[in-house]
Amino acid sequence: MVVVLILGFSFYYVWTHWPRHEVIQTVKEFYDDEQGGDYGSAWTLLHPQIKKKFTQADYIEKRTTLFMDDYGVKGFSYKIDDVDHLKKWRVNADSPYLKDVYRVTVIQSFTGIFGKAQLYKDVYVAKDQGEWKILWEY
Q: What's the CA angle centered on 46, arms 40 and 49, to 5 degrees?
């Protein structure tokens, strides 16, 4: 009886926490790509609602210009600070609601022409055609 309870609890725990693990892996893949300067691969992890705002070429140009040219940043480190599940969420007031979204707080640390800085950013992760994709609030 105890073994059945332990197995049942273990199955329940894994079942309810597996999406969270996948979400964290998606965020890590995105920031690892950005860290390595592979903005093209990072762009492929964006949700279609965000891709509507940038072509892949524009995204690569803007990300490169923002960090390297404007701020003089050579690289950054990051840390995932918090992960929350949201029943529904939307990019802005004009966007449709997405269900089962995760809010992930990421802290980027970098040194640029103005010294050391940290950027706290909430990124959102939702499924699109069975794959977890990154979104931002606008």
A: 130
